[in-house]
Design brief:
By secondary structure, the protein is an alpha+beta fold. The protein has one domain (2-96): YaeB-like fold. Helices cover 45% and strands 29% of the residues. The chain is built from 4 helices and 5 strands. Strand 3 and strand 4 form a beta hairpin. It starts with a strand and ends with a helix. The mean pLDDT is 97.
């Protein structure tokens, strides 16, 4: 499968990167590396995760984040990378836009 990351998801990753980097130098880079590894795992595991609000949801292994994606014709499109601690209503609103 081919994995594509939407501009919204890239923005989500960048915002989280800066949040973690402000907590400790280097933590932002660690966050980004782990999220990218989780996204890269979708090449072989895309489509096996439970569906939430019309998207598959892959939970990050190291951080409290969820990767929301869709699979169409062997293409995985990552739509959002969101903090899983946010309220479910906020997450649904974010995914609906």
């Amino acid at each position: 499968m081919i994995v594509q990351i939407s501009s919204d998801a890239e923005r989500d990753i960048a915002e989280a990167f800066w949040f973690y980097e402000s907590q400790a130098v280097g933590l932002g880079s660690y966050f980004r590396d782990e999220i990218i590894a989780d996204i890269e795992s979708l090449v072989s595991h895309g489509g096996i995760h439970e569906q939430v609000a019309g998207y598959h949801r892959c939970l990050s292994r190291r951080f409290p984040f969820a990767i929301y994606y869709r699979v169409e014709d062997e293409i995985v499109t990552v739509a959002a990378v969101l903090d899983a601690r946010r309220s479910p209503s906020w997450i649904r609103k974010r995914l609906d836009r």
